[in-house]
Design brief:
This protein has about 120 residues and is mostly beta strands. The chain has no helices and 9 strands.
């Protein structure tokens, strides 16, 4: 990758495939991909982008919240991974916390439209 961009490469031939652009800060080792093709990238400013791995479309952005008493500089995400079901996300963060995120079961295309 680059400071604010992820790069997708072909594993067999090393061919560049596409950029995933959308972070304002560095992405540090915080990538996760589930079996449904949802790619998460998380940056050192606490932002998390959710991508369609195949198209490169960023369909959701959110920001983590540092624990009370933490400094703003402790908002980064150092590691991330999906659980075995692929529906819960686990993040290891600079504020010394481990967070488990789940999808909103009540979300729909009407309540959370995807702008393509």
């Amino acid at each position: 990758g680059a400071a604010d961009t992820l790069k997708k490469w072909g594993g067999r031939d090393g061919r560049f495939i596409k950029n995933f652009t959308g972070h304002n800060k560095s992405v540090i080792n915080a990538l996760a991909l589930n079996e449904d093709g949802v790619l998460l990238s998380a940056a050192d400013d606490g932002t998390m982008n959710f991508w369609d791995y195949h198209s490169g479309y960023c369909f959701q952005k959110t920001t983590t919240i540092a624990q009370p008493g933490s400094l703003d500089a402790e908002n980064g995400i150092f590691a991330a991974g999906f659980d075995l079901t692929g529906t819960r996300l686990i993040t290891c963060e600079a504020d010394k916390s481990i967070k488990i995120w789940r999808q909103d079961e009540e979300a729909s295309e009407l309540s959370h439209p995807v702008d393509m």
